[in-house]
Design brief:
Layout lengths: L5 E4 L15 H14 L3 E3 L7 H10 L8 E7 L11 H8 L4 E7 L2 H7 L4 H17 L3 E7 L1 H7 L1 H13 L4 E6 L6 H15 L4 E5 L6 H7 L5 E4 L13 H11 L13 H12 L16 E2 L2 H9 L17 E2 L7 H10 L9 H16 L7 H11 L8 E12 L2 E12 L2 E9 L2 H13 L10 E9 L10 E8 L4 E8 L2 H20 L1
Parallel strand pairs: 1-2, 1-8, 2-3, 3-4, 4-5, 5-6, 6-7, 7-8, 9-10
Antiparallel strand pairs: 11-12, 12-13, 14-15, 15-16
Amino acid sequence: MSSAVKIYDTTLRDGTQGEGISFSVTDKLLITEKLDQFGVDYIEGGFPGSNPRDITYFQEAQKLKLKHARLAAFGSTRRAGVKASEDAQLKTLLDSGMPVLTIVGKTWTLHVTEILRTTLEENLEMIEDSARYLTAQGREVIYDAEHFFDGYRANPDYAMQTLAAAIRGGASNLSLCDTNGGTLVDDFKTIVGRVVSEFGGDKVGVHCHNDSGLGVALTLAGVGASLVQGTANGYGERTGNANLFTVLPSLFLKMNRTARCAANLSQLRDLSLYFDELANLKPDTKAPYIGASAFAHKGGLHANAAQKVKSSYEHIDPSLVGNRTRVLVSDMAGRSSIAMKAKELGLDLDEKSPAMKTLIDELKELEFRGYEFEAADASLKILIRRALGQAKTFFTVEGYRVTVERRAGELVAEATVKLKINDQVVHTVSECTGPVGALDKALRLALETIYPQLKELELRDYKVRILDSRAGANARTRVFIESGDGTEIWGTVGVSDNVIDASWEALTDAVNYKLLQSA
């Protein structure tokens, strides 16, 4: 059995059917080039003719100079009672100019008789005629057997007949679709095994959905088939499709399979983040292999063991998928994990130094009060520097004030900030829609003349967490701020009974971190 598989990405079609997923034409073209560079074999671009965006995409996609990937347009078999050569939808597929045409057909008798409202015999002819007509025009045809597993359970003989019809028509691949996502692994493996046995693994593909949380498991269980379909980050309708970014490392690192893109596996995390950026989604930190938490160690024993022997708590080398080991500092942290975290942050902290006990005690007290440093490395670095006596004072806060008022029907927040910088008192005022934005502007207005590097600083994200909802309006709040300067992104945290004060603490840490990094 060959170890090579082909990878078929359907993010631009099936993935965009997911709630909240939308790509512009430019996004789709950029994604196409990115997937080609990564080494994907097939890229499915969408339904030609279904909407202006996809029509434009296929027009522009023909101009791309791809190095490896073959572009596919997606459609269905001809309509009942219509010749394939006269079917408008098949003509639109051909007009897309794509070298690969993927057509979906019915394999479940329920859908044939109740949805298409035609006969079982006519459905077989629809599949065969459509494939034959398209291949006669010089196109590669991939047949997506919709609801194949439901259809097989209802009538296995008929389900197999639909596949045979596609092969007679010249289809190069029979992709078995678990369209409802309800098949369990043992059944899936048995059914795929029969299809592979009858038609040959080189003719079979798998296309899985994640409705039972098994999209990846089913896909891996179906390998024996030579074509693997999936989407970036598991995007897709309902609960999504099989996540290619989990499937690929499992195939290559654990199942001894290979594909053209295997050589580029170290780019996987960056590719995942690229998709999330274009989709305007927050990356899933818990994603297997490529999530920020995939190789993060919090417990002191785990961190210590991973430091000594990486494989003791890591199932692969993170760098193989472009990820890295992270140590999380919390009230569970011991000396070794804090020392490792300090080293990760570029600081030299001896486990046996007197500063270590002071730092551990302070961390535990801060976490008890509601601080959390797992996503706030910048605040943690400032804290460790302070414990080591390496803190640097760039400015001191004399005071600040924030007011919010409604003027002529519009809300306006005004912030006044008073700082001392190099023995000089600087007093600034700024306005913004919200109080945090006003504080941020006033703070930087006070500092940018002396520290012009702060002009690069940008507040990227702002989150508030109520720590004790039972206290109502008097509840303690934790504010997390993500900042960036075009080169680096960092997180800071503040905690207070007053949300403005918590925000101020996180803002000043963000500014101090930028000044430390550029000092």
